[in-house]
Amino acid sequence: MKLIHAESLPNIPWEDLKIPLRDSPLWRYSGNPVIRRDLTKHSNSIFNSAVVPFKGQFAGVFRCDDTARRMNIHGGRSADGYNWKIEDEPIRFIKSDPELPDSDYKYDPRVVFVEDRYYVIWCNGYHGACIGMGYTFDFEKFYQLENPFMPFNRNGVLFPRKIGKNFAILSRPSDSGHTPFGDIIYSESPDLTFWGKHRHVMSPTEGWQSTKIGAGPAPIETDEGWLLFYHGVLFSCNGFVYAFSAALLDLDKPWKVIARPKPYLISPQELYELAGDVPNVTFPCAALVDGDTNRIAIYYGCADTVTGLVFGKVDEIVDWVKKNQ
Ligand code: BMA
After folding, report:
1. pLDDT digit string (tens) for 203-218?
2. CA 223 to ligand 1 centroid distance, Å
3. Which range is least confidently modeled, 159-163, 175-179, 197-201?
4. 293 Cα to the center of ligand 1, angstroms
């Protein structure tokens, strides 16, 4: 397996494997949770957040629910990917068009570098949950674009390059509540305003991914296909349980699934994943990759309260995905 378009990231947060997980090529950071719930002045919780390499260091957009339990997204910086300075105030987007509607709330951001800028995609409150989008060049000024989709839709994840001539996104159409269903859908746009060419990618199946599924970090390009980490939800007598795994999608037609495993890679098993504001949630939103060594560090929300880190090697994960279908 070879990574495509992956840059060197020698300073990727990293810890060598000490205690392997049973049945998974990933391992948890021994210092988890890497981001505590109270890192900003008013945060009740910081989770489901996005991190990217930025100018030799790291930058990110973080879901911070405040102590009034309002959901919003905040900018942050880190020299090493572990120690974060997250802004106390939410991002104030500059509207690309004054007619753009306000957001009632923002949550679950992703950040994806495409061509010349960092795009931010989030779940946007506009007559219910829909997808919001914006961009930044410097993590200081942020510009808001049109909402790609009408309500109800959650969980938008942009591809890191155009597919053919178009931008491409994965999303999960939903309902106005906590949505007991959900497929991953692919769409394209020539201009990030008008979206079409909608294609079904994957539906829920069995076990940990039997209720709904949704894309996690931006897909990672390899010569074997797009490596897509995604969350899957199981409905138990105690409510939803969020685990995650990874699939391989066709490089030119990403709505075609090449391989999809039956087991999860990570499920809620540690205390900080099992207990929190929403128990039993592991929800990946960002992945850093070192193109030289195949090392990967995945940031994931834990129990809707704190943020965790897991590590792995992209080639080992791709092998695992193919072997565990
Ligand atoms: C989803 C979103 C996520 C959250 C998950 C589990 O609907 O709200 O942010 O992690 O539920 O509570």
Report:
1. 999 999 999 999 999 9
2. 32
3. 175-179
4. 32
Is the C-beta atom of 276 inside 6 A of ligand 1? no
Class of domain 27-323: mainly beta
**236 burial class (0-12, 13-18, 19+ CB within 10 angstroms)?**
exposed
Distance from the Cα of residue 13 to its chain's centroid = 17
Cα 318 to averaged position of ligand 1 atoms, centre (Å): 26
* Cα 276 to Cα 261: distance, rounded to the nearest angstrom: 28
pLDDT over threshold 90, residue 236: yes
pLDDT of residue 57: 98
The alpha carbon dihedral of 227, 228, 231, 232 has a sign of negative
How do the domains of the chain map onto residue ranges? 27-323
Can you tell me the distance from the alpha carbon of 138 to that of 98, in angstroms, rounded to the nearest whole number?
22
pLDDT at 18: 86
C-alpha 123/C-alpha 50 separation (Å) is 13
Q: Is 23 exposed, middle or buried (0-12, 13-18, 19+ CB in 10 A)?
A: exposed
Neighbours of 32 (CB within 10 A): 18
Tokens standing for residue 146: 């049109």
Amino acid 212: pLDDT: 98
Residue with the smallest CA separation from ligand 1 atom 2 is: 108
- Which pTM value belongs to this model? 0.97
Phi and psi of 216, rounded to 5°?
Answer: -105, -115
